[in-house]
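Running this now, will post back.
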Amino acid sequence: MRSIRNSRKSATLRCQLIGLSRSVLRYQPRSSEQNIRLQTQLVELAQRRRRFGYRRLHILLRRAGMQVNHKRIYRLYRADGLMVQRRRRRHGVAVERERLSLPSAPNQVWSMDFVFDALSTGRRIKCLTVVDDFTKEAVGTLVDHGISGFRVTHALDEMARFRGYLKAIRTDQGPEFTGKALDQWAYQRDVKLKLIQPGKPTQNAFIESFNGKFRDECLNEHWFCSLAEARIRIAAWRRDYNEHRPHSAIGNHTPAEFAAHWRASQHQSQHEILISTPGPTK
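Update: finished.
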């Protein structure tokens, strides 16, 4: 009993020393029904609108008929840990602007980019497009729901099996093109990476022009029901683009015709050089 009395006296003396009422010391806050209901609505709304801050959520609650001060919303917002995390801005690679020049032969420079579309179900598909800047040929397309940097390098190896390896490739600064996978691939195969400046798509004008035609003549003309159908139709359009569609930049020839004429002219030039070269003297 003495210990209990002493503890009571000590608590009373301590409160007197600091000027605090014992009722305040033992006060336990009680959440009102209004606060509980408001907190529940705030959490549900924040889960649906994950990038909204407390000010915007306060406006939505007022529209729903909740007459509440923004300061109370802020306190509940902080107490439930609903603060929006700031997304770190991705910094591009600092590169000098390079003049967009036309190559003088196939496989000197390829251009590469991504185009996005969706299936009839709403699921996104991602298309990797690769073009030879000289012949205007669509070297290849890769279609999938997601394409990593490693998948990009694998696709380039498959394309090079039929055409030979390129000397340089021009891309934007997307994460698939600035990652380690493509960088190591280019180093091992002695391929130069030409990165354009961030936010300057005109520096990659050849692939941008191709992608515009690709979207207008293929993606916008079809309603893909599955990934398999998208791959079949896109592959068919690429063959038609290379073999039947005239291109104004290469004298209204098709890319395949232009490439064949160039190869024939190269063989003819080499043959003429061999004929004109005198043989060894006896």
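The longest helix spans residues 255-276. More later if anyone needs it.
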